[in-house]
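Most newcomers find our protein records easier to grasp once they have seen one. Each record describes a single protein and holds just a pair of labelled lines. A learned vocabulary of local backbone shapes supplies the integers on the structure line. Nothing more is needed to start thinking about how sequence determines fold. The record below serves as our worked example for the rest of this section.
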Amino acid sequence: MHAGLQDGASEDMTLSVRTELSHTYSFDSKIDAIFKITLVAERRTQAKGFHHIIVLDTSRSMEGQKIELAKTGAQEYAKRIPPGNTLSVVLFSDTVQTYAETRLSEVMPKIRASGLTALYSALQSAFEIAKKSQRPGWIVLLTDGEPTDVTKPELYSKLTMPTGFQMIEFGIGADYNQSILKALADASGGTLYNITDTHKIELPDLMQKSAVNEVAGRSINVEFGTPNVKILNYKGPPVTINAVETVAKIWGRVQVPPGFNGHVLNIQVSYEDTVDSSRKTLNSPVDISVAKNEEKFFGGINNNLVAEFHYYQGLEEYYQHLAKGELKEATRTMNQLSSNAEQTRRTDLIEATKRLAEQQEETLRLGGSAESTNRLLKQAASETTKRTRG
């Protein structure tokens, strides 16, 4: 086994853990080594014991095809949830209507589009349901507009995300606030889907696919064995994840002192087994030794891992430049992103970067108009949430 890679698993585990470190060796100065922890579903069972909370915008702007597609999408999502789970629904327009632990069929007749967009109040209600729940789960949000109750994005960032819940968000059209939705997705380790007006017909299918019906582990907690870590794509440390369906990846940095020899990370993953409901633990310690010379040190660096980390970091920087209207800086970051994507040799990252680059070129051709920049910003916000945790 390569010194920078450690596995943790056994035959009776439904999850396995694989830890990769960018540096095999320490040397004569401090290093910020990069790590990737991959949780892999080894055996999956029906996803039971979860709480699904659907939060649906029923404001006037959703009237017509959008509200009908949202209703169909909610039905498709609910159909895919196995028995043994809980469903709650929150509707919001001028006011918020909460239906805790209900059947979707009982709520459907009450869904009508009218009024404004009380998003903040709706989230408070959904979070309250989640906090009272004894189960982990998902909060599924659909909205098409700017909130009208609390309009400052920074106040949404201050909302306390319920532990054990991940947000799946569908921003529909050109008027939703991607800054707010991205902040919520990042705070929960979730995903934002950008549903343009030309692709809104795909909403029910996307919602159906986003419903998790098989998992390998529930209520996962990841400890790192050292305070000297910074996590890139989740809140923490420690990192909590509601469930692992197929694969979950945690990226971060760890400080390695000069001439260090021994455990640089001691990864401990505890989770609820979905087969027998017992609490189980996986350990994946990562060792590092001292390089005898500079050639040995540089030869032990995993450059592909470094490039992939810098790609995700750069994607976030790219979004931040766009959000501040810094198109020149965004262009420079995009050029670096393209280079990092090529170095990872991952086709999905290369293709996603090409699509973003083409959209940026179109934005620049249109003189950076508000409409074209808004489209690009929404796509970039969505890509950052999908790529960094995918």
In short: The chain has eleven helices and 18 strands.
